[in-house]
Amino acid sequence: MDSGALRAWLRLARTPGVGGAAAQRLLAAFPTLASALDAGSRNWRVAGLSEAQVDALQRPDEDGIAQDLDWLAVPGRTLLTLEDPRYPEQLREIAVAPPVLFVQGDAELLTLPQLAIVGSRQCSPQGLENAQAFAAELSRRGLVITSGLALGIDGAAHRGALAADGFSIAVCATGLDRVYPARHKTLAHQLATRGALVSEFPVGVQALAENFPRRNRIISGLSLGVLVVEAARESGSLITARLALEQGREVFAIPGSIHNPMARGCHALIRQGAKLVETVDDVLEELGPLLAAHPSRRASRREATASPRAAASPAGATAPDPVAVEILRVLGDDALPLEQIAAGVQRPVAELQAALTRLELTDRIAAAPGGRYQRIYRA
């Protein structure tokens, strides 16, 4: 992209109230965005822009554009626009595609088949395990894992894909010069190095509430489908699922315990027609025909290296701990207090507590609110 075209797109991105719909009107009326912005206010009105949009376009944010150009000057950073052949076709199809995408990392990943994995920030330990395990296996099967870099399920999904030597994309609700939440700074760096960070927002844009639904439409728009791992009844993840349906994407949901409030959003989605997911094959059964359309674009471009943990020999495994086996049997799918576990296991308290500690240290159970313990199932 030449400097004139780049500045034109940055000017558009920096103009309040002028988004994807306005960009599409201008591109329908003029051969390029640069020629459209050179055409002047009278022609902008003819193209269908409102008076407010015309007024805003006449006052370009030169300081902001200079900041964006400085950011883009660093290797590994790029701007994809609706005029760019590298712009992901899957996203271009949605009703109002973002006119620009700021990308840090491997922009080619945006053209590969993707599955969005989303869910609650306030998730259960089992939800974290499910998100990470599903992301790991689905990335091994050829899907790029896309999510929103949030705490909870999003972060677990990104980590699962990276742990499996797969690829992951984080769609951000801020400018890419900052990380939100700040706690995910290290994860964001890993994604920029081994995946990609994406945002439609220019440099300096902070985490505003209204930006998150806009981010969610990109998460679903980039993807073949959306897998919701855990979500409350009122959840941003359900917004992503609704947007996915509107965009003609597949929607999947993992069921949970009826006692887990974070499972109720998933149960609601399943009642509304989302596919109930128990294994990765449930996802691939639906996405298989769509993946077959991209045989040369699978996420296996890099040779995956075996995980040291996966390669470990079972020869050194220790014999099952009978007390631990009993605890896991009693726990089942629900979080239980110590008293109820003790009643079911009927072992001396000291022996019971020692076994609980061993199970926690090996991530077989996790402490839950209210002095309870919850079993963690592993894929």
Task: Write up what this structure looks like.
The protein has 379 residues and is an alpha/beta fold. It is built from 18 helices and 12 strands. Strand 5 (168-171), helix 10 (185-194) and strand 6 form a beta-alpha-beta unit.
How do you describe this structure in short?
With 379 residues, the chain is an alpha/beta fold.
List the helices and strands and how they pair.
Layout: H1 3-13, H2 20-29, H3 33-38, H4 41-46, H5 51-57, H6 62-72, E1 77-81, H7 89-92, E2 100-105, E3 114-118, H8 125-140, E4 144-147, H9 153-163, E5 168-171, H10 185-194, E6 196-199, H11 211-222, E7 225-228, H12 236-246, E8 250-253, H13 264-271, E9 275-276, H14 280-292, H15 308-311, H16 322-331, E10 336-337, H17 338-345, H18 349-361, E11 365-368, E12 372-375
Parallel strand pairs: 3-4, 3-7, 4-5, 5-6, 7-8, 8-9
Antiparallel strand pairs: 1-2, 2-6, 10-12, 11-12
